[in-house]
C-alpha cells in the first residue's frame, strides 16, 4: 500500500511539473487597450495575468528581437512606450511625432519606423538615443508599416491617398508609389518576399501586389452572404509560414476570413466579436487571437478547424494582439 501511495504521489508530482513546464513554455498573449491606457497580459488560454499601465491610447505593439522589450505606440501621448517584459512594467518612452499609428522594428531592434498620422510621414527613430533619424513624406493618414525581410525597404499604406509608398530606408527616399483599393490599412508579405497583400477597409478587398513590378496583380473581393460590401471592412491580415493560407479580420462584418493563397478565394468564415480588428497567429500556427474593438474582447480561434474556442474580455477598445514565447 505504501509503495502504491508513493508511486501515486510521484506520478502526481511529475504530472504537475509537466503541466507547469508546459504552461511556462506556452508563452503569453499581450493586448493593447486603447481606452484603458494599458496593456493586458493573458495566458495562451485567455486567462488574464497582468495589467500594465502605459502612455495614453496604446495601439500598435511589437517585441524586440530577444523579447525583452515590448514597444507600444501611444497615439495621444505622441510617444512609443517601452515595456520591460520580465518586470511587466513600462520603463520609458521615445518621443515621436503627433499621433503615431503603426511602426516596424529594424532587424536588430534598434530603429522604429513609425507612421505619424498627423504629419503625413514615415519617421525613423533610434530607440537607444531616442532621437529621430530621418523622415520621408507620405500620403495623408499613413497607417500600416512593413519592412522587407532584409530590412532595406519599408512599405507604408496611406488611407487617404489609397496607395502604398515604397521607401528605401538606406537612401531614405520613396522609390515607388502603388495605387491600391479604398482606404488601405494593413499588409503582410508572402514568405518568399515576392508579394504584398494589403487590406482595403472601404473597398471590402485585398490588393495583391507583385513587388518586382510594383503593380497590383490581383484584387480579392471579400464577400459575406447577407451583408453589404460597406459592412465588410478588412483591417488585420496574417499568413502562415508556408504561404498557403491567409486570415483577414473583416472589421464590422464580425468575422475572420480564411483565404487559400494560391486560389485567392475564401474557404471559411469564422464568427468573432464586434469589429474584429487585429489578429495574430500562434507560433505553432494552430491558433488565431483576434481583438474585437466594439465588443471589448478577444476571440481565440482554432486555426485548423476554423472554429472559435472562446471569447474573453480584453479591456475597452482592444487594438493589437501579439504573442511572446
List the helices and strands and how they pair.
Blueprint: H1 2-26, E1 28-33, E2 38-43, E3 48-53, E4 58-63, E5 69-74, E6 79-84, E7 89-95, E8 100-105, E9 111-116, E10 121-126, E11 131-137, E12 142-147, E13 153-158, E14 163-168, E15 173-179, E16 184-189, E17 195-200, E18 205-210, E19 215-221, E20 237-239, E21 245-249, E22 255-260, E23 265-271, E24 276-281, E25 287-292, E26 297-302, E27 307-313, E28 318-324
Antiparallel strand pairs: 1-2, 1-28, 2-3, 4-5, 5-6, 6-7, 8-9, 9-10, 10-11, 12-13, 13-14, 14-15, 16-17, 17-18, 18-19, 20-21, 21-22, 22-23, 24-25, 25-26, 26-27
What does it look like?
The chain has 325 residues and is mainly beta. β10 and β11 form a beta hairpin. 8% of the residues lie in helices and 53% in strands.
